[in-house]
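Notes from the 1:1 (GR / supervisor)

We went over the backlog. Supervisor wanted to see one worked example end to end before approving the batch request, so GR pasted a single chain during the call. The sequence is below; no edits were made to it. Supervisor asked that the structure be written out right there so they could see what the output format looks like.
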Amino acid sequence: MKPIRVGLLGIGTVGGGTWEVLRRNAGEIERRAGRAIRITVVADKAVARARKIVGARARVTADAFEVVRGKDVDIVIELIGGYTVAKQLVLEAIGHGKHVVTANKALLATHGNEIFKAAQKRGVMVAFEAAVAGGVPIIKALREGLSANRIEWIAGIINGTSNFILSEMRDKGLPFATVLKDAQAKGYAEADPTFDIEGIDAAHKLTIMAALAFGIPMQFAKAYTEGIGSLTQDDIRYAEQLGYRIKLLGITKRAKRGIELRVHPTLVPTRRLIANVEGVMNAILVKGDAVGPTMYYGAGAGSLPTASAVVADLVDVTRLITADPEHRVPHLAFQPDRLSADRILPIGEVETSYYLRMRVLDRPGVLADITRILALGSISIGAMVQKEPAQAERSVDIVMLTHRAVEKNVNAAIARIERLRAVAGKVTRIRLEELL
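Structure output shown during the call:
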């Protein structure tokens, strides 16, 4: 049987890893796929560097459109990233009847609906295991392994940069700015780290997982994002004292009024496995009604881990390349004509628990005023820490953990608390999830 011919767009970090994995494990991959898989053409603007990597084993071109239009390519791997040219290339490949493998979470989260519709119409596959959590096979788990379940919720550490920063802040007691510089020096954070530390990268990945879990279209624009830049050592220390750790989580849940889709710092009980995931590692908890909670852990980025997912997609596509399109696993797990119109909840309608920290004057009646305001908002207190003021200090920290409450009620209560004359500055609020 003739080998599957692959066109590789971009031979940078992940592209180079994909080339290496295919070369290193060629025999094993052929045994699994049923036929050989070979990269026959590579497109990269750095032509000399690309030729140095592939030698005479593949043709090299600077023109990616030549690859997606060529008749000598069966599958296109898109690893160039971004929203614009990548979208044009993917749609062009689909239009020419080529299957596509991509690691581009931003492209899928923003334009996935259009891309999958085009692929469905043309009868080709778009595979994207590498788009979420690198080498962790969470896409296959959601699309296939958990297909008997009604997924209740997903909560994941899906950005290694932010997890590294929070781990270092907790372990070494360093401020955010210092750890961020270290992450950039180690290559974990980009020169412009906005996508990572503001939760945008995690929201791209969460959007994809929510679509797979709940059978809804991609709706990245409706995802709530909140980053880690304002977290302090005080909050990390108080969380530890109360039995919690702070993680940047992507959370999506079924709720009575719709689907929650949110990324933000979250207090997680230290006894949960996910609370103990450190450094640049990723971990995703998925709760199904039949199986209960399951966790998927591993390297969420890097050359070879991500290449592992890319090549796994190549094997899957190769196995199914002759299958009737109507009998393939749907791109978003559910049949295209059976996607749900469930609304994405605005963050104000989300119900969860909260950590509240406030600086108040140490005088009688202050705590009573605060608890009265919370009670008026139907917010009950689950735990509280009040530190004794240092000698000659007139103010003190109060930390409260609430029971579950609606976010808009909590925000309104915080606004009233901040207007109290005895309260200094802003109230720090961090959401809390028990993940049961």
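Supervisor's comment: The chain has 15 helices and 17 strands.
Batch request approved.
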